[in-house]
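Notebook p. 47: complex prediction with guanosine-5'-monophosphate.
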Amino acid sequence: MPTLFEKIIAGELPADVVYRDSRVIAFLDIRPAARIHILIVPNKPIPTVNDIADEDESLIGHMVIVARDLARQQGIAESGYRLIINCNADGGQEVYHLHLHLLGGRPLGPMITRNT
Ligand code: 5GP
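Predicted complex, structure tokens below:
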């Protein structure tokens, strides 16, 4: 079963695409958690961080470079932002196609809630 993101990559599902090249696509998150919430997604369907192969090193680096450039383009490079990759159930992953969240445009608060 292709994931939602594979369908977006294939153009079978609509998305607000803000960037695309031969290795990645970036589009607006459908349920934004901040004023800027962009998902940077590799075209290659890697399910989770656990499935990243050594040979994917440059692809993962490219995702971060794209996030850096989008942050500049969106005007949040100086105010700040957060990059997140969730992994599996405890990480809160919903879509099992690797993606990097770029969040910003407001103070994002602590990284996670502390349960003391
Ligand atoms: P995860 O929890 O897996 O790290 O993040 C999945 C993200 O994908 C969520 O923030 C969710 O809002 C977003 N999302 C889920 N379905 C869709 C969709 O069909 N289109 C877009 N643009 N985002 C989606």
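Notes: The mean pLDDT is 96. The two ends are 40 Å apart (CA to CA).
Next step: compare against the earlier run before touching the bench.
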